[in-house]
Amino acid sequence: MAAQSNEPKSRYLQYLEMVTGPLEDKRRYRQYKARIKQLPQNYRTAAEALERYLMLLGPADGAGAMAMYEDLVDLFEQSAADGTPIRDIFGEDPVEFVEAFVANYPAGQWRSRERNRFTSAIERAAGEDTTRQDRTE
C-alpha cells in the first residue's frame, strides 16, 4: 500500500470523498477486481459468485468489506496455485462456508449476534428453557 501524504486534501477531494466515499477504498476495489480477472476460469466463476452473494447478503461497509474481499482473493489465488479443487474450498455447503467466513469479520459478527438473539427470543416465547445467552450487553 502506498503511504498517504501528510498534505491536507483539497476541498474538491474532500467533497468528492464525502459524496462517493474514500478514494482509497475505490483503488483497493479496482485492484481486487483485477486480481479476480487473473484467476483461472473456474476459480474466477466461484469467486464472482461468492462476491455476488456477499454484495447482497454480506457486510456493507467499505473498509471492512474490502478487507474481506482481499482475503477471499488471497484464498482463491493460493488455492489456484496449489491446484485445490473448488469443492475442497467450499465443502459440501457453500452457504455454510460463506457464513462462517463472514463471521470472522467485525461487520459480519452482527449477523451471528442477531441470529442468536432471534433464536433465543423464539425459544423464550415458546416457553422453552434455553441455555443460550443473548449477547445484548
TrEMBL record:
InterPro entries per UniProt: UCP029876
Domain of life (superkingdom): Bacteria
Organism: Nonomuraea mangrovi
A Pfam family: DUF1048
Protein name in UniProt: DUF1048 domain-containing protein
